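Format notes (please read before filing issues)

Several people have asked whether sequences and structure tokens are stored in separate files. They are not. Every record keeps both together, in the order shown below: the sequence lines, then the token lines. Line labels are part of the format and must not be stripped during preprocessing.
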Amino acid sequence: MLRRHEFWCRVQGSRELSHISVSLMLRFFAVSLISVFIPLYLYKELGYSFTQTLLFFIFYSIIFAIFTPLAASFAARFGVKHAVLFSLPFYVAFLILLSVLKTLPVPLVVLSTLMGISLAFYWMGMNLLFYQASDHSHRGEQVGKNSFYKITATVIAPVLGGFLITWFNFQVVFVLACMILMTSAIVLFLSKESHIKYHFSFRDVLSKDHWKNSIYFSSKGTEAMATGVLWPLFIFTILGSYFTLGIAGAVMGGGSAVLMWVAGRYSDHKDKAHLVHVLTLFECVSWIASGLVATPFHVFAVSALAALVTGVRQPPLEAMEFDKARGHAVSYFVSREIFICLGRIFILVFVLMINNVQGGIFFHSLMSLTTFLF
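Then the structure lines:
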């Protein structure tokens, strides 16, 4: 009887993971249609200053951090899938206001607030959902598969987004992204939510057990801003068009996709920490090289190198992150997201202080070495 129960638990978990993977793929496709172009949309198309553009991302990170504990309380009470669903209207509203910003000058602080709230609820729900659906012994493989689906979507999306922006306009991309986002949320509810009662207290976030990973999680925030904000702003002047920028994003994603699946399965049978530490040195080198590019050839060569390193390094590293959530998942993911947001803020404030995008890229190259502390 016990074996039959375990069998059906595995079947249910596999079905749940499939829905999570498809939902993530659709979500990343929708977001990747536009995300790489948002810094340039604000800075180049709408004429916001460099400082205003970076302040937009700084403020959304602050809102993200503030609302993460609230998102955790919501997920603990109403369910993790409902937290994901709750995030959707905020992101759709953000995209709609972003699309009409040229004719309806809504304060950027409003857009930052909508985006920050949406991401706080989405990632709290999705992280807990994947944590409860995956299992420790196969987590590297499961992370690798998830990453494969996500990255595959992000290979096509930037090229399509760049094409649509070049031949039509940003508004077409915004509408398409909204439609796909709504579909991604619906997919999650194809299977019934198993509402697990999580305990969460705001005091748990202050536990010293979470602070030992604070520097590493901050480096994930610097990576997010270096990849999503600083890198597009830096290389656009070299590439000269949205379509070529989209292709550069596709090169970085495409090289990672298959490697993530293979590396994820391989890492379940090896020492994950040793594999990650070796690859972290190459990660640092790839970011240093990113800050030195001067021609389109350099951009694509560095993108290929980054894809190779990320593809092998990311699955075991993410699997290690989920493994450490055991026993205190909610407070762990809350503190994780808060420190990631602090990393986002630190790197953008640093760039504003030195007024140099390259300096921010080099700053992250050093932060990437904090993985040795994890």
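For reference, the curators noted about this record: The chain has one domain: 22-188+210-373. Residues 2-34 form the longest helix (33 residues).
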